[in-house]
Design brief:
Elements: E1 3-5, E2 14-21, E3 31-37, E4 43-45, E5 47-49, H1 54-57, H2 73-81, H3 84-87, E6 97-101, H4 107-113, E7 120-124, E8 137-138, H5 144-147, E9 150-156, H6 165-173, E10 176-187, H7 192-197, H8 215-224, E11 227-232, H9 236-252, H10 258-277, H11 280-286, E12 289-296
Parallel strand pairs: 6-7, 6-9, 7-8, 9-10
Antiparallel strand pairs: 1-5, 2-3, 3-4, 10-12, 11-12
Length: 300
């Protein structure tokens, strides 16, 4: 796998925090070094795969797989019921043309198009078009402007993967219909899980996450693209799911000692409990996720 030297969007001075590898999917045995920007507080690996190597990095990635059934269906259904608005991506009822950038298997688009003959659901991704019939209209990434405008555009855990997130936000903002909006969910660089688990935190996701934003850094990018963000509170169940994935990474990493892993696992459990008991403002600040609904800035 070939690499290039990585940096955060603001280009500020950064320091190394810890070594990272692909705990989540094991697509590569390569390792890297996680950096933190001293200006915007973003996290980012010091090196990132070149575009031609991304196919290897995403081998076996979860968005390309259909949901599993069996015993997992019940707990998944309960979790989904607790975060209905989030899964619907706060899509307005009035939105007629909806684009999901980074649509993966298309679950969100299929859900919002169901029973809505008046709604056009469109999806695009950097990966090839999925095989078989689709519940949405597929767009090649280069055809976004030709199919515009859109009433609602969503990026569900996509922005952190992009080499030039600011340029993409600027591009998408120009395709919004008057009164349209853009929905973003992305990992939070100031999550309690990074403090508790470090290299095992689920959202390290090396070598797929190119930049993990702080709220301040994300707000700067959105403002530069002519967008006004309104930040939403992520569902508490998402923090729990993220913590479970982090605990799994700790448990299976046999290269680390039991004492070290035990301390990290305990820090995750204590951190999750404290996070869930915090007031909304503090909980949002330490959440593993940032969720923003954006409108075009007046005069922008």
């Amino acid at each position: 796998m070939d690499w290039f030297a990585n940096h955060c969007s603001c280009g500020g001075a950064a320091k190394a925090l810890f070594k990272v590898r692909d705990h989540n999917f094991g697509a590569t045995a390569a390792t890297g070094e996680m950096m933190r920007c001293g200006d915007c507080h973003a996290l980012f690996p010091a090196r990132f795969p070149v575009p031609g190597a991304l196919g290897q990095a995403y081998r076996g990635y979860y968005t390309q797989r259909p949901r599993r059934g069996g015993w997992r269906a019940w707990p998944r259904g309960a979790a989904d019921a607790a975060r209905r608005d989030y899964l619907a991506r706060h899509t307005p009822q009035a939105a007629r043309r909806v684009l999901d950038y980074g649509c993966g298997a298309g679950e969100y688009l299929a859900a919002i198009a169901a029973g809505r003959a008046d709604r056009e659901a469109l999806g695009t991704d950097v990966t090839p078009r999925p095989r078989g019939p689709l519940a949405y209209a597929w767009l090649a990434p280069g055809h976004i402007e030709a199919a515009a405008p859109y009433d609602w555009i969503t990026l569900g855990h996509v922005l952190e993967h992009l080499v030039e997130p600011g340029a993409m936000l600027d591009r998408l903002a120009r395709t919004l219909a008057p009164g349209g909006g853009l929905w973003i969910a992305t990992p939070n660089a100031e999550s309690f899980l990074f403090a508790a688990a470090g290299r095992w935190a689920r959202d390290v996701d090396f070598p797929r996450h190119r930049e993990i934003f702080s709220r301040r850094g994300l707000e700067w990018l959105l403002t530069a693209a002519g967008l006004e963000p309104e930040f939403k509170s992520p569902p508490r169940v998402n923090a729990g799911l993220n913590a479970v994935s982090t605990l799994r990474n700790i448990a299976v990493d046999k290269a680390a000692g039991r004492l070290e892993r035990g301390r990290a696992a305990w820090a995750v459990i204590v951190g999750l409990a404290g996070h869930c008991l915090q007031g909304r403002t503090k909980r949002d600040a330490s959440s593993p996720e940032i969720v923003a609904v954006c409108k075009a800035r007046s005069g922008g």
